[in-house]
Amino acid sequence: MYHNFINSEWVEGLDVSTNINPSDTRDIIGHYARACETQARTAFAAASQAFPTWGAWGPQQRSDALDMIGSEILARRDELADLLAREEGKALQDARGEVLRAGQIFKFFAGECLRLPGELLASTRPGMTVEITREPVGVVTVITPWNFPLAIPAWKIAPALAYGNTVVFKPAELVPGCAWALTEIISRAGLPAGTFNLVMGRSRDIGNVLLEDPRLSAISFTGSEATGRKVAQAAIGRPGGMARFQLEMGGKNPLVVLDDADLEVAVSCALDGAYHATGQRCTASSRLIVTDKVHDRFVAAMLARLPSLKVGDARSNGTRIGPVVDASQLDQDLAYIQHGLSEGAQLVYGGHALQEIEGKPGFYLQPALFIGASSSMRICQEEIFGPVAAVIRVADADEALTVANDTPFGLSAGVCTTSIKRAAQFKRELQAGMVMVNAPTAGVDPHAPFGGRKSSSYGAREQGRYALEFFTHVKTSYINP
Q1: For residues 228 and 104, what is the distance between their CA atoms, to the nearest angstrom?
Q2: Is residue 481 over pLDDT 90?
C-alpha cells in the first residue's frame, strides 16, 4: 500500500486505486491511497503553517535541498524509467529521457535559488531610492496530467520550492506510482514539515478543495482545455479572494513541409513528433501540412518508415511505440480514427487496435496515418492524444502558413525548409508559443520557457527563468534614508 504524504507523514486514504500496467493488464503495479476532502484540507493547513519557515530558509539551504532531490532522481534513472514505462506505457528510451529531464530541472532550480534577481533604481524624488524585490506567493496547488508523470511535476514543483513556496501536489490518478516515487525522494531532502504534500485520488473527491481552499495562493495546472477553464473559473471565483492561475491545456500542432525541405529530415521530424511517446504529448505534430510538389514523395517516405516503429511492451527492447495509457484513451483514439474515415480522409497506414502483443494483453494501437485530410476535419482540429497523424495537402508556402494557424490551439509548430528566408517568415508568423525549424515539434530544454498561445496556455510561461514570473510576487519599496 502506498500512502499520501501530508505534513511529512505517510497517511492512509479514504480508499485505494489499483495501478495497472497498460502493456500487460495482468500486471498490478500497486495499490495507492486516495485522499478525502478532510485530508486535502489538512494538507493545505500544513502547507500554510510551513510557509513562513520554508520562505525564511536561506537560498543556499533551499539550493542544497533541490540539488539533493535532482541528484537522487539522476542516480535512480534506470529504476524510475522502468517504473514510468511500466505505469504510463512510454517506451523505455523515452522514459529514460523523461527521468533525465526531471533530474536536470531540479538541479537547474537549485541554481536559481542563488540567482533571485532584484533591482535598485533612482527615484524621480530627490534622496529617495526604489528597490524592487521578489517574494514567494504562498501555498501552491500543483495539478499534473498522466502523460509526463515525472517531468511535468518536476517543472512545477521545483520552481515553486526554489522561490520559497509550499506545495500541495495532486497527480493524475492513472500515474500515482511516479508521483509517489518523486514524493519519497522529496521526503528525504530535509524540508520543514508541511512544505511539500502529496494528495492522490479522484478529482471528484478532492477537486473542490484543491481549487477553493482559502489558504491557497496559486494554482499551476496542466490538462485538458475543458478542465483548464473550470480551474480558471474556480480561481477567479474563489471565496476569500482570487488565486493566481497558470494553465497548460494542449495543442493541435502543425509540422509544415515545404517544397525545398530535406525530405529525410522532414520525415524524421514527422515520425518523432507524431508517434514517439505514443503520440500522447501536447506538443505532438498531429497535422502534417505538406506542399503539393513534395507531397507524394513525403507520403511514400512515411509509409516506408512507419513499419520500423515497433509497437510493443513499453519495457521491451526495440519498442518504439508503447500502449496508450488505458482503455478509455484507446476508445477515444479509435473513435477519432472513425471520425476521420467518415469525414472522407483516407487511412493509408495502421489505425487498428491490437488485443495483445507477445501474449501480453494491453492497450495497443498501430500508428495511424491519414492522407486527403482537410483543415476543417475533426482529426485536424481536436486534440486526439494518440499515435494518429493526418497529412493536409496545400498548394504552396502561403497556404501552408494559413492552414498551420487554422486551429484554436497555439502551443508548438514546426517547419521543414532549407530556405533561411522561409524559416524566418514561419518563425515570425506561426501563431505558437514555440517554433521548431527542421526539428520535431516536441521537446524543450529544461532551461527554456515552455508555453503557448490561444487555447493552449494561459498565464506565465513554465520552465527556465520565466518560472519566476508565476511563483513570485514583485514588491516595489521606496526608501527615504
Answers
A1: 27
A2: no
Judge whether 282 counts as a catalytic residue.
Answer: yes
Three-state DSSP class for residue 87: helix
Residue 255: closest CA among 304, 306, 311, 294? 294
Return the bridge partners of 383, or none: none
Mean pLDDT of 294-302: 98
Q: Are strands 254-257 and 412-416 parallel, antiparallel or unpaired?
A: parallel
- What percent of the chain stands above pLDDT 90? 97
Give the model confidence (pLDDT) of 44-92 as tens digits: 999 999 999 999 999 999 999 999 999 999 999 999 999 999 999 999 9
Among the listed residues 208, 227, 262, 267, the one whose alpha carbon sits nearest the alpha carbon of residue 391: 267
One-letter-per-residue 3-state SS of 23-57 = CCCCCEEEEEEECCHHHHHHHHHHHHHHHHHHHHC
Measured in whole angstroms, how far is the alpha carbon of residue 13 from the centre of its chain?
27
Of the candidates 478, 465, 473, 477, the residue with the CA atom closest to the CA atom of residue 115? 465
81-102 per-position pLDDT tens digit: 999 999 999 999 999 999 999 9
CA 20-155-168 angle, 5° bins: 70
What is the rounded CA–CA span in Å between residue 307 and residue 182? 36
Phi-psi region of 339 (alpha: psi -120 to 50; beta: other; left: phi over 0): alpha
Task: With cut-offs at 50, 70 and 90, classify the pLDDT of residue 239.
Answer: confident
134 grid coordinates: 521578489
Residue 359, classed as helix, strand or coil, is coil
Residue 414, strand partner residues: 255, 436
Catalytic residue among 282, 380, 416, 462: 282
8 A C-beta contact, residue 196 and residue 166: yes
- Kindly give, in sequence order, each residue whose CB lies less than 8 Å from that of residue 230, ignoring residues fewer than 6 positions away: none
- What domains can be seen in the chain, in order of their start residue? 4-249+456-479 (3.40.605.10), 254-437 (3.40.309.10)
Residue 448 pLDDT more than 90? yes
Cα 363 to Cα 323: distance, rounded to the nearest angstrom: 5
Residue 269 confidence (pLDDT): 98
Q: Is-catalytic flag, 248? A: yes
The catalytic residue among 88, 248, 383, 462 is 248
pLDDT at 443 over 90: no
